[in-house]
Design brief:
Blueprint lengths: L50 E6 L6 E3 L3 E9 L9 E5 L4 E6 L5 E3 L8 E11 L11 E3 L1 E9 L6 E9 L5 E12 L2 E22 L6 E12 L3 E8 L5 E10 L4 E3 L3 E4 L5 E9 L4 E8 L3 E9 L4 E9 L3 E8 L6 E8 L4 E8 L1
Antiparallel strand pairs: 1-3, 2-8, 3-7, 4-9, 5-7, 6-7, 9-10, 11-12, 12-13, 12-14, 12-15, 15-16, 15-17, 18-19, 19-22, 20-21, 20-23, 23-24
Length: 355
């Protein structure tokens, strides 16, 4: 019918009185409809993750340098987040991590061909052992632990990611302390202690003048396997005055090696310097030369080689003076003796021979 998308054909086909029409003009019209159907295929990227957090802790065998770099990578959705709206927090850190490159511009890993959905920023922190904002060459720590948190509010509600990082060393030898001090301008005493040992061959004691290049100066035998507390010490004759660094290289019987932290000893910080001792047979006097940085009482003690005290003398040193003490002594027999000079903070010893 007209008005419904069809055409009227007068006196033709099925639109006429076909009963009174001759067969030759009875016609049938076929009408074709064409519909254009267009389809657009769009790949939907559904990134349901929030943040991927990884860290490049650095360090060899979980030994970290004071002032060393710690890198943290944060991977996130390009479509969801803008990187300049993140906040970052370090918590529960065993040592301080100082942010160096945490605000824009970041170091981006941004390759669309590799990953069209994600992008990664690299944040840089500096390890501050002890949290004193002083970075000491050669100072190290064994083990590092912290939690890293990234947060944003870009989607209308808080978005948060957290990752815990821990790098620790399980040592066959439980080293509980390692310390040292300069006993005088020419000698240093190193002491260390273990709570337990397993297959411990011994300790290589290493010395350095710069905190980087170490030379072994002694090897001290270990106690193999024991659950008892063990104490060790070594007296090092210094090649000169100055500043020195020490570390322990612990060696198992299977050849496995583990290094301790590095400690520093300086003769410049001595408050007392026991410089010289000599016994004069003619008048039976002991000559002792001491440099003292402050006014303080001192005690000079003579021991025989069995460690038995022979004589004890108390005197006072004057601040910033090199003083020579001539002391009468009562040594019963000839032989070798130990002269010990001690103040409130320092102990120094030297050998003398009495004829």
């Amino acid at each position: 019918a007209a008005g419904q998308g069809c055409h009227r054909w007068g006196s033709r086909g099925k639109n006429t009185d076909m009963i009174n029409m001759p067969p030759r003009i009875q016609e049938t019209m076929n009408t074709w409809w064409y519909v254009a159907d267009e389809r657009d295929s769009i790949k939907f990227k559904n990134d349901t993750s929030l943040f991927g957090i990884t860290a490049a802790l650095g360090g060899s065998n979980c030994v970290f340098d004071d002032g060393g770099d710690i890198f943290i990578d944060v991977t996130f959705s390009r479509d969801k987040f803008a990187s300049n709206l993140f906040t970052y927090t370090i918590i529960n850190a065993t040592d301080t991590l100082i942010p160096i490159n945490v605000n824009p511009p970041f170091s981006f890993t941004d390759n669309m061909l590799v990953d069209p959905i994600k992008r990664t920023i690299r944040l840089r922190y500096r390890l501050d052992i002890g949290g004193d904002n002083i970075f000491t060459p050669g100072l190290q720590t064994t083990g590092l632990s912290f939690a890293f948190i990234v947060e944003t509010n870009q989607c209308g509600s808080p978005q948060r990611g957290r990752q815990n990082f821990t790098c620790t060393v399980t040592l066959p030898v439980n080293l509980t302390s390692f310390s040292g001090r300069a006993t005088d301008a020419a000698n240093a005493r190193l002491e260390w202690q273990t709570a337990s040992e397993k297959q411990n061959k011994g300790f290589g004691l290493e010395r350095s003048i710069d905190g980087y290049n170490f030379t072994e100066i002694a090897f001290i035998q270990g106690n193999e396997t024991t659950n008892n507390e063990s104490k060790y010490h070594y007296n090092d004759k210094l090649p000169s005055r100055g500043r020195f660094y020490y570390r322990l290289r612990q060696v198992d019987f299977d050849g496995t090696e583990t290094f301790s932290k590095i400690i520093e000893i300086s003769t410049d910080e001595l408050s007392m310097d026991f410089m010289y001792a000599s016994y004069h047979q003619e008048d039976k006097t002991l000559q002792v030369v001491v440099r003292q940085k402050r006014n303080e009482d001192m005690q000079i003690t003579i021991y025989n080689m069995l460690g038995v005290e022979v004589q004890c003398i108390k005197t006072q040193a004057k601040q910033n003076f090199v003083q020579t003490f001539i002391l009468p002594v009562n040594v019963p027999t000839a032989g070798t003796y130990i002269i010990e000079v001690k103040d409130s903070k320092n102990i120094a010893k030297k050998k003398i021979v009495v004829y």
